[in-house]
Amino acid sequence: IGPKHDCLCNVLLGFISLDCGSPPNEPPYNDVQTGLTFSTDNGFVQTGKTGKVQEEVESLFPKPVWNLRYFPDGTRNCYTLNVTQGTKYLIRALFVYGNYDGLNEYPSFDLYLGPNYLETINLGLWGTGGMFEEIIHKPISKSLQVCLVNTGTGYPIINTLELRPLQNNSTYNTQSGSLRHFRRNYFSTASRTVRYPSDVSDRVWIPNFDEKKWTEVTTNFTVNTSNGYNPPQVVMASASTPISAFAPWNFTWTWLLTPSTTQFYIYMHFAEIQSLQANETREFSVLVNGDPMYERYSPKPFSIETLSYFTPQQCDQGNCTVELLRTSKSTLPPLINAFEIYTVIDLPLLETNQDDVLAIKSIQNTYNLSRISWQGDPCAPIEFLWDGLNCDNANASEPPIVTYLNLSSSQLTGIIAPVIQNLTNLKEL
Ligand SMILES: *[C@@H]1O[C@H](CO)[C@@H](O)[C@H](O)[C@H]1NC(C)=O
Ligand SMILES: *[C@@H]1O[C@H](CO)[C@@H](O)[C@H](O)[C@H]1NC(C)=O
Ligand SMILES: *[C@@H]1O[C@H](CO)[C@@H](O)[C@H](O)[C@H]1NC(C)=O
Ligand SMILES: *[C@@H]1O[C@H](CO)[C@@H](O)[C@H](O)[C@H]1NC(C)=O
Ligand SMILES: *[C@@H]1O[C@H](CO)[C@@H](O)[C@H](O)[C@H]1NC(C)=O
Ligand SMILES: *[C@@H]1O[C@H](CO)[C@@H](O)[C@H](O)[C@H]1NC(C)=O
Ligand SMILES: *[C@@H]1O[C@H](CO)[C@@H](O)[C@H](O)[C@H]1NC(C)=O
Ligand SMILES: *[C@@H]1O[C@H](CO)[C@@H](O)[C@H](O)[C@H]1NC(C)=O
Ligand SMILES: *[C@@H]1O[C@H](CO)[C@@H](O)[C@H](O)[C@H]1NC(C)=O
Ligand SMILES: *[C@@H]1O[C@H](CO)[C@@H](O)[C@H](O)[C@H]1NC(C)=O
Ligand SMILES: *[C@@H]1O[C@H](CO)[C@@H](O)[C@H](O)[C@H]1NC(C)=O
Ligand SMILES: *[C@@H]1O[C@H](CO)[C@@H](O)[C@H](O)[C@H]1NC(C)=O
């Protein structure tokens, strides 16, 4: 680690920042944009080969994106990351093809979180810019697996993998499932994308402003942003209001590549950042898809408040709207500083019983077994069951258990490892 600008965030904040496919002997380095320390993914993944995006693509991205790891062998290849149980994480992966293999053929492959399908990464849809996947998720066990699955349409690739523990476990709650990033905007005429260190959890905030409909309000005073969500100061220090003082403030979107029945959560961050006179009032109703979420709302002076739902929402035929409607009492138009929209991802499959996982990994180490399928969850999903294993996955509300282990044809010698006894559900060895 460089002597001058050590980023202690990896240690203090528990960040993991991987430059996938960088040489195993390359020392960690600090990313210029964020100051975050990136290191090689060697040690987090057992398989794959390394490549590099072509030079003309390099200039479009910061250094951590230049290298990539691709997976020519096996169906499912997995990263294993140590996490703190019960802590919520922001997990982000970036995929940029960059014609690393000179074939000019964008791959398409599937991304899994542990046993569960997350998304199909179809890079042909995104071209040179590549794409990212970002989720907010609370891991169930002490290790988190991010898996890339070959679906017969090119080798899976990955350029960066980032894990950021969130500051507060009580934020971004869902009834079930986890959250996938859809958009995260702050309303400002600025052009600067804001992330770490301004955002202590390294969320990426993109400025958004519709000059035809909105005027900007800014402040030089400090806004109290401490409500658990803690967006950056710069994000809360600007806001948009409708140009025409009596018009509603509204925002519309439609789902891209997701069904019109997609469920979502929205987090709207408000703070009054104008110093109001005694005879001035700002009051408005907040409507999502035409339904009142909050009636007669007044943002708190120079202090954040985040409005959100307890239950997931859906949009009529996939067309979604947010409207802020000025009340008759109000002397000022509505105002909003920032918002975040996430879609709900279902993660129905349970991970294999953790005692069985520890035992089978210990067996793998003891006998130095290097089978390509022996990565990711041993039992789930059933289509990626490890070679030589059988499991009981019958009851979906209980973790799968290992019931059968076949190590023959592995040229094993020596003693029978005592840890085999730890597979307490084994019926056949
Ligand atoms: C993850 O945790 C395991 C067991 O606690 C430890 O042996 C391993 O070195 C850790 N891996 C990393 C990359 O920190
Ligand atoms: C979140 O909850 C877990 C488990 O309850 C705890 O270990 C962790 O310290 C919490 N994290 C924060 C930031 O409060
Ligand atoms: C904030 O400070 C800058 C520079 O001192 C000044 O130009 C600007 O008018 C101030 N903005 C507000 C809203 O006071
Ligand atoms: C900021 O707001 C929080 C919650 O409203 C409050 O607990 C805290 O004391 C405030 N901080 C400051 C510096 O005013
Ligand atoms: C965590 O966030 C919740 C919800 O916003 C808030 O009520 C609570 O005070 C926060 N806790 C801490 C330690 O910041
Ligand atoms: C948004 O507001 C404009 C007026 O500013 C109005 O003409 C338009 O119908 C509104 N759109 C929606 C979806 O409510
Ligand atoms: C509020 O009072 C100020 C004078 O103190 C006056 O100039 C202004 O027009 C008043 N505003 C409203 C909305 O009544
Ligand atoms: C939804 O949006 C699509 C395209 O943006 C449009 O064709 C359709 O009429 C809209 N439906 C409703 C109910 O507004
Ligand atoms: C095997 O089980 C024993 C007794 O429960 C335990 O102490 C040991 O840590 C287990 N070993 C592994 C690798 O899980
Ligand atoms: C484990 O197997 C790999 C190849 O599969 C080999 O390179 C390595 O030397 C073996 N390690 C031990 C300790 O036998
Ligand atoms: C599945 O497991 C749940 C929870 O342990 C239990 O309540 C249920 O009876 C089981 N179902 C079957 C069909 O065994
Ligand atoms: C165990 O695996 C070997 C090699 O894959 C296979 O030939 C053999 O039939 C298996 N044995 C049983 C009992 O399934």
Task: Summarize it.
It is found in: Membrane. The chain is mainly beta and 429 residues long.
Describe it:
The protein is elongated. β2 and β3 form a beta hairpin. It folds into three domains: 3-165, Jelly Rolls, CATH 2.60.120; 178-345, Jelly Rolls; 354-422, no CATH class. By secondary structure, the chain is mostly beta strands. It has helices spanning 9-12, 55-58, 233-236, 354-366, and strands at 16-19, 29-30, 37-40, 49-52, 67-70, 76-82, 89-95, 108-113, 116-122, 131-137, 143-153, 157-158, 160-165, 178-187, 206-208, 214-218, 238-242, 249-254, 264-270, 284-288, 291-297, 305-307, 319-326, 338-345, 389-392, 401-405. The model is unreliable at 1-6 (pLDDT under 50). The chain is built from four helices and 26 strands. Strands 1, 2, 3, 7, 10, 13, 14, 15, 19, 22 and 24 form an eleven-stranded mixed beta sheet that branches. Strands 6-11-8-9 form a four-stranded antiparallel beta sheet, with no helix packed on it. One 2-acetamido-2-deoxy-beta-D-glucopyranose is lined by residues 43, 82.
Number of helices: 4
Task: Please estimate the helix content.
Answer: under 10%
Give the full name of the CATH homologous superfamily of the largest domain: Galactose-binding lectin
Uncertain runs: 1-6
CATH architecture of the largest domain: Sandwich
How many separate domains make up the residues? 3
Number of strands: 26
Q: Which molecules are bound in this entry?
A: 2-acetamido-2-deoxy-beta-D-glucopyranose
Kindly provide the radius of gyration, computed on alpha-carbon positions and rounded to a whole number of angstroms.
Answer: 24 Å
Highest CATH level, the class of the largest domain: Mainly Beta
Largest sheet: 11 strands, mixed
